[in-house]
Amino acid sequence: MTTVITFGTFDVFHVGHLNILHRARALGDRLVVGVSSDALNQQKKGRTPIYGQRDRLAIIAGLKCVDEVFIEESLDLKADYIRRFNADMLVMGDDWAGRFDSFSFLCPVIYFPRTPSISTTSLIEVIRND
Ligand code: C2G
Question: What's a single GO MF annotation on this record (predicted)?
């Protein structure tokens, strides 16, 4: 059994999010997803997400390609999460390229290219300007 772990905010869920989750799941037999908390977003992006963590978690948990979800409370707890869920691989989009290489002593760290031309930020802008 190969377990893959990935992390993200997944706010205003879109096809770029779905693509990386499918790609991550295809690398193993079990996909565990850490959904970053509202507080962590406030800390890393200076704003709270449009959807609260409970709803974001519920959306990710409802996907066929996802086996387990949890709330990611801190960027610094990656090693703990990898161990807790027995992850064999850590997957992230390449906007994070190199950022989590320090965990490669625990498991391989793989960065997939981001899906072009879509992001939560650009969607929020389009909605705001309509
Ligand atoms: N993503 C993607 N293509 C896009 C947009 C996002 O592949 N067009 C990927 C990102 O690279 C990331 C995942 O989707 O791997 C989730 O993206 P975000 O919701 O923006 O996550 P982020 O806020 O970067 O949180 O510990 C890491 C963080 O919690 C990641």
Answer: nucleotidyltransferase activity
Q: Ligand 1 pocket, 7 CB below 6 A?
A: yes
CA distance 124 to 58: 21
pTM of the model: 0.97
- Please choose, from the candidates 81, 79, 80, 51, the residue with its C-alpha nearest in 3D space to the C-alpha of residue 68: 81
* Ligand 1 atom with minimal separation from the 112 CA: 7
Top mutation candidate among 80, 101, 114 for ligand 1, by most atoms within 8 Å of CB: 114
102-109 contacts at long range (C-beta below 8 A, 24 or more positions apart)? 103/78, 103/79, 106/79, 106/82, 107/82
For the stretch 40-67, pLDDT in tens is: 999 988 999 999 999 999 999 999 999 9
